[in-house]
Amino acid sequence: MAEDTRRLPAEAPTPGPEPAQPAAPSAPPRALPPPRYAPGAPRAGYVPPHTGPVVPVVAAAPAAPAAPVVPAVPPRPRTAPKAEGRDAETRGAEVRVEDLVKGRPRSGDSAARRTGRAVRRMVGASAARDVAEATRVAEAVQRPVATGRQIVVTSIRGGAGKTTVTALLGRTYAHYRQDPVLMLEADPALGTLPVRLAAPAVRWTCGDLARIIEPTMQLTDVTGYLVQLPDRGWLLPGSQGRVGTRLDLAEYRSVMVALRRYFGITVVDCETLPSELSRTALAAAQARVLVAPATVEGVTSTRAVLDWMASLPRPLMLPGTVVVLAASSPHMALDVAAARAHLRLAGVRVLTLPYDRHLAAGGPIRTELLGEATREAATHLAAEVLDRAVTEPR
């Protein structure tokens, strides 16, 4: 076979480096414009020039899935935060209210008085009469009501004993009655009603509840915002112990109208006269209690308040008013008979609250430590006030 003498075309030679060209004459140096891109940054898209520091471009993280929408709930009021550092030093150590009283709580009656009462009961001098009177008063306190009755307790000045009377009334009604009883504090200026009632904690206030309560709420819904007291009854405080807390008049009206259908009896510890809130509360209540110190000044000031109430055309306040003269000393120099004659206007009833060592010490009220005369006075007062709240002409 003849040999194929054809040759494949030779590969093109690889071009070598071009010969160096003579360098052009160098031009004078010019200032370079600022870089349009950051060194190492991607050049896709336009990035405006800037003269500040270069921020590296970071890829955006994938968006998180949207959270499910949860219906908004009313925020619970927060308690005051604990003081730290310098504030803690200025506040000092916090102690329980019970620890502020030295020794054991004192009984309202002295040992001699308790002994004499025990001897009289042993001989049976007036046991039957006492039982009959106690039964009559208990039936009066348990009197049924068609609609909620609101009782307002106020005074002409602070320190007269209105909070103590409010606590005694509320506890008496809660002890004898089967329907729910509420004690409401309408004196937010550092009122002491939660202390007197031994409230375990203070959560929601009257102003807080006014912004939340609705007509569709049930009693179980409402009591979730109240303080349940150890010995029955409910409490709605006026403040959380903070200075400057105020209770608006519209808030008070809203709460009182809404709570009336839940509680058979509502006892209000109101501001002192002549504030606008106290005057409005007196006019809207079914019964009123004016607490005054058992002194000459207390009687004369209370008479001035009664004259003002008598001058109002509507509503008729005096028929539903009870005056309580609270004794602050075991030796009272006031002539009680003369004071009653001076204050008895248009059906106003005047009662007295005797001096009690347990009440005078302050702090939580323990019913078992009250003097017998104090318990009897509180029960008679509760029966008298409820009778006027039910039968008061409107």
Keywords:
394 residues, alpha/beta, Rossmann fold, eight-stranded mixed beta sheet, 13 helices, 8 strands, globular
Q: Name the CATH homologous superfamily of the domain at 127-391.
A: P-loop containing nucleotide triphosphate hydrolases
Strand order of the largest sheet: 3-4-2-5-1-6-7-8
Determine the number of helices (DSSP H or I, runs of at least 4 residues). Answer: 13
Major sheet details: 8 strands, mixed
CATH class of the domain at 127-391: Alpha Beta
So, CATH architecture of the domain at 127-391?
3-Layer(aba) Sandwich
**What low-confidence regions span 5 or more consecutive residues with pLDDT below 50?**
8-12, 35-43, 45-52, 68-93
Helix/strand order, N-terminal first: HHHEHEHHHEEHEHEHEHEHH
Q: In terms of structural class, how would the helical and strand content be classed? A: alpha/beta
Helix content: 25-40%
How much is the radius of gyration in Å?
40 Å
Distance between the termini: 143 Å
Query: What is the typical, i.e. mean, pLDDT?
Result: 77
Shape: globular
Number of strands: 8
